[in-house]
Automatic annotation (TrEMBL):
It comes from the Bacteria. It comes from Actinomadura meridiana. This is Uncharacterized protein. The lineage of its organism: Bacteria, Bacillati, Actinomycetota, Actinomycetes, Streptosporangiales.
Length: 58
């Protein structure tokens, strides 16, 4: 019975998160762009570190 209640709650939380992201992008597009750029830079740095590690092993 608890599982049945968890599914709608998860669905609502997803919609709330999407609404928050949309509101943030509309209200502060420069801040949203900076956040995306920071995330992309972090992923690129992680990928570079992983490549360095793999090259060091081989």
């Amino acid at each position: 019975m608890l599982r049945e209640a968890a599914v709608p709650a998860k669905k609502y939380m997803t919609w709330v998160a999407a609404a928050f992201v949309a509101f943030y992008v509309i209200q502060q597009p420069d801040g949203a762009a900076q956040s995306v750029e920071n995330a992309a830079n972090g992923l690129a740095s992680a990928a570079g570190s992983l490549a360095t590690f793999v090259n060091a092993i081989g």
